[in-house]
């Protein structure tokens, strides 16, 4: 028996992060994969036979997540492998997970909101309750999950926790990207200044997962990655 769960979560973007930088990060599919704290490895793959026709031309990966069935005591560890597609939309990213045991997760990540000099519409009560700010940009995540009724609470809890960490890391990387852009565009900045900034950024964000000051996730040179929770190996 399957149960459907739907929810929306909004997270404000720092004022220093632009709309374009945020959208670029959403459209970096491998970036979105490795920022997820559950992922241990992934590789490009083909669509599953049961995918919808409009997903055939999406970008597909086979991803393996780590599982802890009793997280409070750290026992019952395992892994689950599934297929997931990524489809870029204007200002957003759509994803679809096809996992074992009938777990099906559709998600849409979007950059929404208005800057002070932009016209906008009043927020709905639902979006406001989901965490959207009255002014400024925010990441909006809409999730539609279908799962075995007996696994729903476990899957929903793990998914919300993992995605909260993913968004936290995404915002950290967005801030570093903006700082790097500002630094390289400042004529007075020397090479040594920029190197120091990168070192400090790497040091301050090491607890957030991958090294955000580098780009080792390019599909050009990285067709297959193993991931140990902190750094690609």
From TrEMBL:
<feature type="region of interest" description="Disordered">
    <location>
        <begin position="180"/>
        <end position="215"/>
    </location>
</feature>
<dbReference type="InterPro" id="IPR055481">
    <property type="entry name" value="DUF7053"/>
</dbReference>
<feature type="compositionally biased region" description="Polar residues">
    <location>
        <begin position="198"/>
        <end position="208"/>
    </location>
</feature>
<feature type="domain" description="DUF7053">
    <location>
        <begin position="2"/>
        <end position="175"/>
    </location>
</feature>
<feature type="compositionally biased region" description="Polar residues">
    <location>
        <begin position="180"/>
        <end position="191"/>
    </location>
</feature>
<dbReference type="Pfam" id="PF23155">
    <property type="entry name" value="DUF7053"/>
</dbReference>
<protein>
    <recommendedName>
        <fullName>DUF7053 domain-containing protein</fullName>
    </recommendedName>
</protein>
């Amino acid at each position: 028996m399957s149960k459907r769960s739907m929810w929306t979560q909004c997270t404000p973007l720092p004022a220093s992060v632009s709309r374009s930088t945020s959208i670029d990060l959403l459209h970096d599919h491998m970036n979105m994969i490795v920022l997820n704290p559950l992922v241990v490895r992934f590789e490009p793959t083909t669509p599953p036979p049961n995918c919808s026709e409009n997903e055939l031309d999406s970008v597909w990966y086979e991803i393996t997540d780590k599982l802890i069935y009793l997280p409070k005591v750290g026992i019952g560890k395992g892994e689950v492998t599934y297929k997931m597609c990524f489809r870029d939309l204007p200002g957003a990213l759509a994803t679809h997970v096809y996992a074992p045991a009938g777990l099906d997760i559709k998600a849409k990540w979007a950059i929404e909101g208005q800057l002070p000099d932009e016209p906008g519409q009043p927020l709905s009560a639902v979006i406001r309750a989901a965490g959207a700010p009255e002014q400024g940009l925010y990441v909006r995540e809409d999730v539609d999950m279908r799962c075995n009724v007996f696994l729903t609470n476990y899957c929903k809890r793990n998914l919300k926790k993992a995605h909260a960490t993913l968004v936290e890391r995404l915002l950290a990387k967005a801030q570093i990207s903006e700082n790097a852009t500002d630094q390289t565009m400042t004529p007075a900045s020397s090479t040594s200044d920029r190197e120091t900034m990168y070192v400090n950024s790497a040091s301050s964000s090491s607890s957030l997962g991958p090294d955000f000051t580098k780009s080792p996730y390019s599909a050009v040179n990285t067709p297959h990655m193993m991931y140990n929770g902190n750094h690609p190996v």
